[in-house]
Amino acid sequence: MIGIGTDLVEIERFRATLERTPGIRERTFTVDEREWADAKNDPTERYAVRWAAKEAVMKAMGVGLGAVAMIDIEVVRSESGAPSVRLHGTAAELAEELGVAGWRLTLTHTESMAQAIAVAL
Fold first, then answer.
1. Those residues with Cβ within 8 angstroms of residue 50's Cβ, 6 or more apart along the chain or in another chain
2. 61-88 as b/e, with b when 16 or more CB fall inside 10 Å?
3. What SS3 class is residue 89?
4. Radius of gyration, CA atoms only, the chain
5. pLDDT in tens, 72-117
6. Using CA atoms, how far apart are residues 118 and 105, in angstroms rounded to an integer?
7. CA 20 from chain center: how many Å?
8. DSSP letter at 102?
9. Overall pTM surpassing 0.85 (yes/no)
10. Which among 48, 93, 112, 117 is placed 20 to 30 Å from 41, CA to CA?
């Protein structure tokens, strides 16, 4: 195991961030992530949990915000529905340097909080 990361996001605080900074969606989330989130009546929970996942992935690699582009960390779902991580660009380069061979990711949210835990293997 290379590292474990976790992050917790307040849904209403993230809602305010999305409203205050509309361009954050395009800078942070891939087209597929935006399409998946926007398919829900209130996509904020889906955006918040993905933000938490991106931060958790960075923490598992031992870095913080700004070390890699957020959009280079993508949350994807397998056929079974299990969440996983696909890395691009700077995030993929860092993972390769660290010797990351795989990921485990868990996501959860309530009406008020979103949490992600990432394990870099």
1. 29, 33, 37, 75, 107
2. bebeeeebebbbbbbeeeeeeebebebe
3. helix
4. 13
5. 999 999 889 899 999 999 999 999 999 999 999 999 999 899 999 9
6. 5
7. 20
8. -
9. yes
10. 117
Is the dihedral angle over the CA atoms 14, 22, 49, 2 positive or is it negative? Answer: negative
Pick the CATH number of 3-120 from 3.30.1540.10, 3.40.640.10, 3.30.1490.100, 3.90.470.20: 3.90.470.20
d(CA 64, CA 1): 19
pLDDT surpassing 90 at residue 65: no
Q: Please identify which residue in the block is written with the tokens 């996501």.
A: 107
Domain ranges (residues) in the chain: 3-120
What does 39-78 look like in DSSP terms, one character per residue?
TSSSTHHHHHHHHHHHHHHHHHTT--TTSS-GGGEEEEE-
Place of tokens 């929970």: 45
Position 52 scores a pLDDT of 98
Q: Give CA torsion, residues 121, 84, 112, 72, to 10 deg.
A: 90
